[in-house]
User: Fold these one by one.
Assistant:
Number 1:
Amino acid sequence: MPSPPLPRTLRRALLALLFLVPAASAQFVEGTVVDAKGLPVAGVDIDAFDLLAGGVEVPLSGDVTDIHGAFLTTLPAAGLYEFSFTAPVPKKLLPRTLSNVAVAVTTDLGDVALEQGATLSGRLVSPGLAPVGNVSVDVVDALTGLDAALLSTNAQGIFSVLLPIGVYEVEIDPDGSDFLGTLAPEAFTVELATSKNVGSLVMRDGYVLSTRVVSAAGTPVQGVDLDVTDRFTGDDLFTPNDNSGPTGVLSVVVPAGRYDLELCPLPGSGLVTLGVTGLHVSSDLAFGDITISAGMPLGGLVLDMFGDAVPGADLDLLDPVTGNEIALCRDDANASGVYSVFVPLGTYDAVFSAPGNSLLGQVVMPGVVVSGPTILNAVLTPDLANATPGGPAKPAGGAPGSAPGSMGAGAGGGAQPTQGTGPLAPSAKLD
């Protein structure tokens, strides 16, 4: 049975004598490190950083907790410090940082509790089952969207990281890896309640899709986002670095398959979304120049029967002749129920749908004519069985029921069809 800890006053005096620091001038910091259950944690490493000196690390004496979880260390001078506490790896306790700690003579930090974590680990291998090193693994908190960890696989293709309990998106980017060839990025969701090893993950061969996005005047269009969706599962692919640069060029890597593509211009650019459906990929594809033209603004309010906003309500536009869906990006209503998109001139069937967690139904508005800036409001009711027919679109400019802030009337220039223009590589196949 371990002996009880020495009284803190005696420990301070012994520590001062040991390091020949006058007890009257020594700056003492003490406390106890415990786990989530309040049990002491031995072997915790303690580091200190002088915030008044730019965050430089300060040498510490007694910088490891004893078998009782207690620590008593000295600092060379009073000041403002940051302390970090790192438990031994086998304990799977999360590191903790205490910042802006004012130290003067004696500072008692009390109990410093370390949260229980869990280890996520796995191994990445090539299609030939060889380990793939130097692959970027970004772990993103699924709730907040913030990065929880960024690491790389070692030479054996292994990754391992200690995380808080939670749900995470794991994004794997093989660009720059040790593999001599092209591998497709991958992503998956994992719920981490206890430590989990996901085993060996087989990376897939990747193929490059590339294009240059230009305006109707032939100038490069920057910031266009390329979204790639699996044609059969409906899942969005993880495609890092998928925005066009200053020259309008963008490229992504995808595995073999059949996909729907959307090229989404920046919000407020006035440019329409371009879509390609049923693209078969089995080799690298270069699309050449794709032209995105200006569209007409279509927007309005989506409300429920009480006049309250319906955040997250989705707008779909359909070609009334073919029934094909028109490509749209960022077409959901915001927190105020307002939506705004840019579309080509034409006639559409508009479908407004409540978000999945709502009891509201769907409203269909056939024959919506967009010949200029158009306001189209919708009211959703709790009709879960059938769509509710709506009325025609009201032109902008103060018509009854129009959304606040009229877009103004007037016709605009022509807009390009939803299908992207520009040559497709011969191996590109469309439905």
Number 2:
Amino acid sequence: MRFPTHAPRLTSSIVLGVISLATFVLPTTARSEQTTTEVEDVDPESEGALDLDELVRRAVQFNLLIRAEGTRVREAEALYQRAAAMAYPAISFNALIGGPTSEARTTVVNDLSTVTPESLEADFDFGELGVTFRIGAQIVQPLYTFGKISTAKESAAHGVRAAKHNVNITLGEVLLNVHRAYWTHMMTISFAEGLEDGYRILESVIMKIETLIEEDSAQVTENDRLRLLHALATIRVRLTDARVGQSLSLQALKLLIGKEQSDALSVAAKEIEDVPEGVPSLNEQMALARVQRPEVQALSAVTQALDGVAELRIRQLFPDVYLGGVIDMAITSNATNQTNPFIYDRFNYFDLGIGIGVRAELDVFQKLAHADMAEAEARTAMARLDAVRQLVELDVQKAHQELSGSYTRLRDLEKAMTAGRGWLTSSVLAYDIGTGNARELVDSFIARATSEAEYFKTCFDIHVGSADLARAVGEMQQRYGVTVRTE
């Protein structure tokens, strides 16, 4: 009876797979399948203007960065399945048919003195030629591995959770970019509308000045006309900049939702002045960030995975106990089947057996070195986790302070914009009745344009700042219900 001597063992590729997954997640989290996100399917070819919510849904489904992160989840899941598969039987099978084989016969079974002359070796008489058919199979079932398989599965499971949290990191960044591109588009539209209104006002004033100059009126001078022409040219430059920004933001939205740049995209307009109300409490936001920020969760899972790798390296010092079975058979067409068990017959045989075996690798010093390396990697991950927790708190504080400052500026800019509009209106009326001058008209127009630009920019900062605070806290994904399940 032959007995299998190759017991299943956790290959180093499984351990290295967990480590490689960790090294991918660590740099990503330190700096900051589609099938796992819950979002209603949308038709990429559907017509109509897309609002912000619809743009977010399309980005979740079609953004290439999110899809790329989804493949990392599938890679981690495959690593877990590979570790889990080590608990199941390993079966190997081989079959061979070949020839020609020389004659190996005896005239009497089990009587070697009756071997035929043609069967004798050391000559060129091969006798009757034949063929040999051989078949062999082994089955090995692990019985006890001193926790190797369970530790590998647990470590790989932490790797899967880390990969899913990494998808949530990318989701938050992509959704923030969608908000930024959308509100940039809305801001440039508001800029363009305000500049076009100012352009029409100055254009009408210039037409009147030119009429007065032709009539030799003392109310205006050539310098007044040139000053207004300069202001008009400046408006055209700013209007061109606004339209370029409008086009670039539209291209950015196409990229974020997975559309080709040559495809048409219509964006539903929304008043940029409709800002969210109030700033949430900083303490509440800090508490939420400590619990649900995906960078912290991902690094925590990575740390647990590397702790598991270190434990697995230690457990590899112990042997594996396994149950093994074997079957071997050979049939040769031109050889006598000898049934005496004390006669070695390599041409015809049948062996079947089952037993319990122990397998151990005695490269103890290499295993200890690998264990030390794994423990060092786990300590490094823990240090990075502590650093990331501090960076997250700083990120939340920064986003909260910037948002609070934007709300404060908005209140003052509302007053400035109201005053600027009133000043421009009175300057235009004064100029119409002949009591004003071109310098005051240009100054009032610049004041009004500057205050409106700052007001729209502050509204933009509030919209994007609110989204950035949600990302910093880890709520951006929950806001749209697209968080990847990590359990």
